[in-house]
Design a protein that fits this description.
Blueprint: H1 3-7, H2 11-23, H3 41-46, E1 55-67, E2 71-79, E3 96-102, E4 115-130, E5 133-147, H4 150-154
Parallel strand pairs: 3-5
Antiparallel strand pairs: 1-2, 1-4, 2-3, 4-5
Signal peptide: 1-20
Keywords: Lipoprotein, Signal
Pfam family, one: Slp
């Protein structure tokens, strides 16, 4: 008996299983438009004039929130986004940026370390400092914003494992 004859009856399962696992991933929350530039904050910081007024979809972890009389600035540490536009904090950070919201934003709704995905338009840059180092922050005027809950971050990641042998899992 060869290995092909063992798995031949299971071939019909391949497509349904692949479709089922793909269906678990939530759809992206923001649509990419013709004006959307595929660039990371670090690239914009090096040449902000090249990407002026481009639309971006960025996500990351909240560092700080500062309220002003007519707007709020949320300092973010950017991370790559998955296919559902969730920040992937297990990946390497892609630089910092400042998300600018019109009006007042409650700082308690954006706690340090909270994960957010924004859609907005680049609006220049600003030099400031991170500790003792000078840093250039891209500025993004936010048009849409989504704060991720723990349940949303887990969604689309089924706790399914395939393998042969014996294992013990504690959840």
């Amino acid at each position: 008996m060869n290995i092909r004859s063992v798995f031949r009856p299971l071939r019909w399962l391949a497509v349904p299983v692949a479709l089922a696992l793909t269906a678990c991933a939530p759809a992206p929350i923001y649509q990419v438009t013709p004006g959307t530039v595929n660039v990371i904050p670090m690239q914009v910081a090096h040449s902000p004039e090249q990407f002026a007024k481009g639309d971006v979809i960025w996500g990351g972890s909240v560092i700080d929130v500062r309220n002003f009389p007519d707007h709020t600035e949320v300092e973010m540490l950017a991370y790559p986004l998955d296919s559902s536009q969730r920040p992937q904090t297990n990946a390497q950070a892609q630089g910092r940026y400042i998300a600018i919201y019109t009006g007042y934003v409650e700082a308690l709704n954006f706690p340090p370390g909270g994960l957010v995905t924004i859609s907005g338009q680049l609006n220049g840059s600003r030099s400031d400092s991170v500790d003792q180092a000078t840093y250039v922050y891209p500025l993004v005027n936010v048009t849409q914003s989504h704060r991720w809950t723990a349940a949303e971050l887990r969604a689309g990641h089924p706790d399914i494992h395939f393998g042969v042998g014996v294992g013990v899992g504690i959840h």
